[in-house]
Amino acid sequence: MRAAIVTVSDRAFAGEYEDKGGPGCESWLRGVVTTPLTVTRHIIPDGRASVAQVLRTLVAEKADLILVTGGTGPAPRDETPEGVADLIEKELAGFGEEMRRASLREVPTAILSRQTAGIAGQSLIITLPGKPAAIATCLNAVFAAVPYCLDLIGAGRIETDPAKITAFRPKA
Ligand SMILES: Nc1ncnc2c1ncn2[C@@H]1O[C@H](COP(=O)(O)OP(=O)(O)OP(=O)(O)O)[C@@H](O)[C@H]1O
Ligand SMILES: Nc1nc2c(c(=O)[nH]1)N[C@H]1C(S)=C(S)[C@@H](COP(=O)(O)O)O[C@H]1N2
After folding, report:
1. N or C: which end of the chain has fewer CB within 10 A?
2. Residue 171 confidence class, pLDDT cut points 50, 70, 90
3. Looking at the CA of 128, which ligand is closest?
4. How much distance in Å is there from the Cα of 83 to the middle of ligand 1?
5. From the centroid of its chain, how far is CA 90?
6. pLDDT tens across 135-170, in order?
7. What pTM did the predictor assign?
8. Which helix (H) or strand (E) holds 119?
9. Residue bearing the CA closest to ligand 2, atom 15
């Protein structure tokens, strides 16, 4: 699987703090996916155009899975969902619903995240909150459905470590 991880944060992009979200996503994936995995990481500033532009490039490069962390909230610069909406062909709203449900068990402000997921070309794009602690909570909540989703869109077949995530394939 070719995975791409995008950190959307003005301050991480400017070097005002060290990005912990990108490395957090990568180590979560490496701990769960047992089939061959390549990961590229990207740090970009907040903004609809900034998000749409990097996603278009990654979709054209045929990334199978794109994780985007940050910019999902209600603040003026939080425009990640708008940038994602500019290029996805199909929204998978259930991902956002389930990730928020899992996060709400930890923090009441989880309801402020507009995180979602969608399909562009042969890429599955999943958005996550910027808080590094949200990454495991959210990915643990939805990843069982990711391998079959990748099958359905013609991306690479992946397997997961059943001790961490049991992939569910209804036709298997
Ligand atoms: N990529 C990241 N790496 C490390 N910490 C992060 C990251 N994104 C967010 N955080 C932490 O979560 C807190 C709240 O995140 P929030 O979404 O408000 O991001 P932010 O810091 O305002 O990002 P921005 O740079 O876009 O303004 C931040 O103050 C920071 O402590
Ligand atoms: N699991 C989890 N989800 C969370 C949070 C968190 O700390 N943990 N923070 C929330 C907050 S405070 C905000 S504003 C939104 C959006 O964050 P973002 O703009 O960094 O994407 O995510 C929410 N979801």
Report:
1. C
2. confident
3. 2
4. 18
5. 15
6. 999 999 999 999 999 999 999 899 999 999 999 999
7. 0.97
8. strand 117-120
9. 113
Ligand 2 atom closest to Cα of residue 74:
14
Task: Provide residues with CB under 6 Å of ligand 1.
Answer: 7, 9-12, 17, 19-21, 46, 70, 73, 77, 130-132
Which residue's CA is minimally distant from atom 9 of ligand 2? Answer: 110
Fold of 2-152: Molybdenum Cofactor Biosythetic Enzyme; Chain A (3.40.980)
Taking residues 3-18, what's their average pLDDT?
98
In this prediction, does ipTM exceed 0.85?
A: yes
Of 36, 97, 88, nearest to 66 by C-alpha is 88
Sheet of strand 90-91: strand arrangement: 38-44, 2-8, 65-69, 123-128, 117-120, 90-91
